[in-house]
Write a structure and sequence with these properties.
The protein is mainly beta and 288 residues long. It has helices spanning 34-41, 116-121, 269-280; strands at residues 6-11, 13-17, 21-27, 44-55, 63-68, 71-79, 82-86, 91-94, 99-103, 108-114, 123-133, 144-148, 156-158, 161-167, 169-170, 173-174, 183-190, 195-199, 205-212, 215-217, 220-222, 226-230, 235-239, 244-251, 259-261, 264-266.
């Protein structure tokens, strides 16, 4: 079996979003901008690792109401608890190990904020948000929201570590997230000296994103807070001498034009202009 090697390594960019939430922007990363970044990671658009941070009592740290159109967000929580509300009436609570799949589609307004108890008493928050592009034919689909509870994607042990599959098939088990774009997505933790091997479809975009600790891929070290974009092949092999926590994302490229402006991702500039107008005139709905 031909294992994939590292084609490039991109360092995450420290930044803030929402109400001053510190995060590391991993896709696009440092040195990747605009269309080149999107083409390199097609069908993935953006990936943020927020936290880990400790919210002080009385804090409003979170992501207040904002719009999206043309893609999906898959938010995975590692620590803490977040509540979601959106303009379709969707609502739910993220718990550690759980996720939410939100389809922006034709347009949605939503917020993600700590639960009231955590705002009152404080506590840790950590998670990962991934933006997944929608094919042109699905960008106008009805917006919606789905809770993916931890029980639907439990940790599964293997020799040298454990894995939680969010989408795609891992160790013979399919993750609960369903997306128009064909993807596979998982969180892995390796013990010191541990390794993980897996087959992924040839021709797919494959990347390994290190959250904590360093991994090695075919002799190439990938430091903490980095994205390793892999080259061609079928096999994936990741190891770690000291132990590590990381995400693996893989997807079949859409190979479609991308026009991007802030929270909107469409195929043309004209569609972006229409999205701005629709949001400003309230056609994406409002939060009650």
């Amino acid at each position: 079996m031909a294992f994939r090697t590292v084609a490039s390594i991109v360092s995450g960019q420290p930044t803030q979003d929402g109400n001053g939430v510190p995060l590391r922007r991993l896709v696009p990363g440092r040195g990747q901008r605009g269309g080149d970044a999107f083409r390199a990671m097609d069908p993935f658009l953006l990936m943020d690792h927020f936290g880990p941070l400790h919210i002080p009592p009385g804090s409003d740290a979170g992501f207040p109401p904002h719009p999206h159109r043309g893609f999906q967000t898959l938010t995975y929580l590692i620590q803490g608890a977040f509540r979601h509300r959106d303009s379709t009436g969707g609502h739910g609570t993220l718990r550690p190990g759980g996720a939410q799949l939100m389809t922006a589609g034709s347009g949605i307004v939503h917020e993600e904020m700590p639960v009231p108890e955590q705002q009152e008493s404080g506590g840790p928050i950590e998670g990962v948000q991934l933006w997944i592009n929608l094919p042109k034919a699905d960008k106008g689909m009805r917006p919606g929201y789905e809770d993916l509870q931890p029980e639907a994607m439990p940790w599964r042990a293997f020799e040298g570590g454990r894995i939680r599959g969010l989408a795609g098939t891992w160790l013979g088990v399919e993750g609960p997230a369903r997306t128009p774009a064909a993807i596979a997505y998982a969180h892995l933790e390796l013990e010191p000296g541990g390794a993980f091997e897996h087959l992924l479809p040839e021709g797919w975009t494959v990347a390994v994103v290190t959250l904590h600790g360093e991994v090695e891929i075919q002799g190439r070290p990938v430091p903490e807070g980095s994205v390793a974009v892999l080259g061609e092949g079928a096999g994936l092999r990741v190891s770690s001498g000291a132990g590590a926590s990381f995400m693996v994302l893989a997807g079949r490229p859409l190979q479609e034009p991308i026009a991007h402006y802030g929270p909107f991702v469409m195929n043309t500039v004209e569609e972006i202009e229409q999205a701005l107008l629709d949001y400003q005139e309230g056609r994406m709905g409002r939060l009650a």
